[in-house]
Amino acid sequence: MNWRSLFRPAARLLPSRWLITRGPSDRSAIALTFDDGPLDSTPGCLDVLDELGLRATFFVVGKEVQAHPDLCLEMVGRGHEVAGHGFTHSYFPALEYRALADELARTAELLPPQPFRPLVRPPAGAISPTSLWNTMRSGYTTVLWSLDCFDWRTQDASEIATELEQARAGDILLLHEGSAPTLEALRVAKAAWQRRGLDCVTLSDLCGL
User: Which of 48, 80, 120, 146 is most solvent-facing, going by the fewest CB within 10 Å?
Assistant: First the structure.
């Protein structure tokens, strides 16, 4: 067993100002999070979320925001929230402090103002002690997830729905923009969540940020 396999579980003991991996389980709510946008397909994703009455948090890539400058405003205008996912989708543990700080700042400059401490999700969820520290001292909280719905490895909507339906109170769900099967799976999963009394809220709402 190497240090990386030990570090990630241990990192969950860090204060929430450093790292968030899930929300509180004492309220009947979960947080949908979407990585890697905004994309040309984002308006369609927002339409489905509106139709289903779901709210989400979008972790966006700075260079994609530059290519789609109005879509983050549309996300916020429809009741969702946005946060950073790096400017170039680079692997955070490989970046020196100044390079990482630049990735964070260049993305943040493009985002609408948020009423909470800036959040960031490292691409692929890759963290190290150094990258966590550098992210925190740059003024950001790192956000991971507690339920990976695996829409990055399958295009089978039923498989994605099976993962989504496993959500429990406090879970942060990892999803990705640009996946049509994910949107189809959300329609199935919402019914299961409703039966269990689970609401879909933004990450800041779930965690009380």
Answer: 48
The end-to-end CA distance of the chain, in Å, is 35
* Residues designated as active site: 35, 176
What pTM did the predictor assign? 0.93
Domain ranges of the chain: 20-207
CATH homologous superfamily for the domain 20-207: Glycoside hydrolase/deacetylase (3.20.20.370)
pLDDT tens across 96-141, in order? Answer: 999 999 999 999 999 988 777 799 999 999 999 999 999 999 999 9
pLDDT for the residue 205: 95
DSSP per-residue string spanning the chain: --HHHHHHHHHTTS-TTTEES---SSSSEEEEEEEEE--TTHHHHHHHHHHHT--EEEEE-HHHHHHSTTHHHHHHHTT-EEEE--SS---GGGS-HHHHHHHHHHHHTTSPP-SSS-EE--GGG---HHHHHHHHHTT-EEE--SEE--TTT---HHHHHHHHTT--TT-EEEEETT-HHHHHHHHHHHHHHHHTTPEEE-HHHHHT-
